[in-house]
């Protein structure tokens, strides 16, 4: 921990933070394509909120990307080989996304919802693969003796993610009424091309992994040995290093922490439209104003986590998470009040800042450097599985409850189990983070 705020702030002057920010933008961009932007397109096309919620389940692929994550630790992509292991996978994922978007703008979701869903799922697959490479890129930038930089790196990654998510989101919703969603997604193609050029231009402090692409000796060059080395060893190392009991406890906490937030997030755009907010208001408040708040609170959250530790950051973020969900219930009761919308976003983005920075920093700290892509992907997948699998029925849950107010109260209650678990294991978590 740093003794002064000034020491903490100096961490951001490291040029690697700029690289991490840009890679975070790349990670957040496809989340907009298959998240809020997609929900807006589907809602304006007359698709039911139940179907919108189910179509959002294409994001379940994020929960299983740890299955192929070991491949990203082992191989480079020949065409993009000169950009290094991590960036080569990012560029490959973005190339596939480019072709999928070109196909998506030829499809009308109102008439071809299944084909539209297949294309959205394809983007999710590319995005999930890209996320593995982006997370590993961030972790690889720092040596084992630079753990104090993890909160700052997490902050830049989170700010980058929200920039990649909110920027295209603002562009989309502010132009949706005038241009139509099809033209909006054509603009998204231009954004993607710019991001690809940015990935090619940034620096990279990742270690040379070329030796890891063919590590098996002739005597051990068997399918079983390759499978063990590639698919089993990264996860076995995590359990061996922490012990089975502690490792399982950590995974349970990761699984539970953001379930309530994801349940709310899946239906947020649908809720905004149904309660009476326009696309322009969503663009101004949720995207532009929301992005500004996220940047400010993420920087503050990073400084807090650097000075006082990620455990306190996780606890504060969790409490704020439950509180912000209750404010959404108040909007459902009052109606489309812009002032209440702004207040809710302040609290909601404070929540995102403290919880996300603390969680990313925590996951980075418990990730082994030898298998950074594989292990971080496992942790992210565990969290994503709980959030995305349950969030898939969020639309039907609103229909079943018959009330947006009850829905948001329920999402607040869903936060409590993870907070209780956090309190019960906080000493173990602190020891793991300190020992790095």
TrEMBL record:
Keywords: Membrane, Transmembrane, Transmembrane helix, Transport
Residue spans crossing the bilayer: 20-40, 52-69, 89-107, 183-202, 246-268, 288-306, 313-334, 340-364, 376-394, 406-425
Subcellular location: Membrane
Domain of life: Bacteria
Topological category with respect to the lipid bilayer: Multi-pass membrane protein
InterPro entries found in the cross-reference section: AmpG_permease/AT-1, MFS, MFS_trans_sf
Name recorded for this polypeptide: MFS transporter
């Amino acid at each position: 921990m740093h003794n002064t705020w000034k020491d903490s702030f100096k961490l951001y002057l490291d040029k690697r933070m700029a690289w991490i920010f840009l890679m975070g933008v790349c990670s957040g961009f496809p989340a907009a394509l298959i998240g809020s932007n997609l929900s807006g397109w589907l809602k304006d096309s007359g698709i039911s909120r139940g179907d919108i919620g189910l179509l959002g389940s294409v994001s379940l692929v994020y929960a299983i990307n740890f299955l192929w994550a070991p491949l990203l630790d082992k191989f480079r992509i020949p065409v993009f080989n000169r950009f290094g292991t991590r960036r080569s996978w990012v560029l490959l994922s973005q190339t596939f996304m480019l072709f999928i978007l070109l196909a998506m703008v030829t499809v009308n979701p109102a008439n071809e919802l299944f084909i539209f869903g297949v294309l959205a799922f394809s983007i999710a697959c590319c995005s999930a693969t890209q996320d593995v490479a982006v997370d590993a890129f961030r972790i690889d930038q720092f040596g084992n003796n630079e753990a104090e930089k993890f909160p700052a790196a997490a902050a830049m990654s989170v700010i980058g993610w929200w920039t990649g998510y909110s920027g295209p989101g603002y562009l989309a919703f502010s132009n949706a009424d005038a241009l139509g969603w099809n033209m909006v997604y054509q603009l998204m193609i231009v954004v993607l091309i710019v991001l690809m050029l940015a990935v090619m231009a940034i620096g990279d402090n990742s270690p040379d992994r070329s030796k890891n692409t063919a590590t098996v000796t002739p005597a051990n060059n068997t399918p079983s040995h390759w499978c063990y080395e590639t698919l089993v060893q990264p996860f076995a190392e995590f359990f061996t290093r922490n012990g089975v009991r502690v490792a399982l406890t950590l995974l349970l906490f990761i699984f539970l922490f953001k379930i309530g937030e994801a349940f709310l997030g899946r239906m947020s755009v649908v809720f905004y439209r149904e309660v009476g907010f326009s696309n322009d208001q969503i663009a101004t408040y949720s995207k532009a104003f929301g992005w500004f708040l996220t940047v400010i609170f993420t920087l503050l959250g990073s400084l807090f986590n650097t000075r006082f530790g990620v455990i306190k950051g996780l606890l504060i973020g969790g409490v704020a998470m439950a509180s912000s969900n209750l404010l959404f219930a108040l909007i459902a009761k009052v109606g489309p009040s812009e002032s209440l919308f702004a207040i809710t976003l302040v609290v909601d983005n404070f929540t995102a800042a403290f919880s996300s920075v603390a969680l990313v920093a925590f996951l980075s700290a418990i990730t082994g450097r030898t298998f950074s892509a594989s292990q971080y992907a496992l942790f992210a997948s565990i969290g994503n599985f709980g959030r995305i699998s349950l969030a898939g029925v969020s639309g039907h849950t609103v229909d079943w409850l018959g009330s947006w107010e009850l829905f948001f109260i329920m999402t607040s209650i869903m936060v409590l189990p993870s907070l209780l678990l956090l309190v019960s294991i906080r000493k173990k978590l602190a020891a793991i983070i300190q020992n790095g």
